Amino acid sequence: IGMWTIPEVGYFGLTKEAAEKQGIFAEEGIASYDDCLRGRVFAPEGLLKLVFRKNDGVIIGVHIIGTDACEMVHYGMDLVH
Predict the structure, then answer these.
(1) Segment holding 12, helix H or strand E
(2) What are 2-14's pLDDT values in tens digits?
(3) Nearest 10 degrees: CA dihedral of 80, 15, 64, 76?
(4) From CA 27, how far away is CA 53, in angstroms rounded?
(5) Could you tell me the pTM of the whole model?
């Protein structure tokens, strides 16, 4: 799902809270756009969050906030199982 708001928001799959309600032991990793050079130069304000099952590392959710989030979430959708 993508929302062309300011900032843009794109997400697919579960949040950590939704996973835990389903009995899944989940964790999340967060990276800021400005953690990489391209993000620092072109769009430093934004973040990527991946939600994964703690026991095996399988990604169950991807959440992006910032420039081009609606386009980038499609790459994350391929990772979600």
Answers:
(1) strand 9-13
(2) 888 889 999 999 9
(3) 0
(4) 6
(5) 0.86
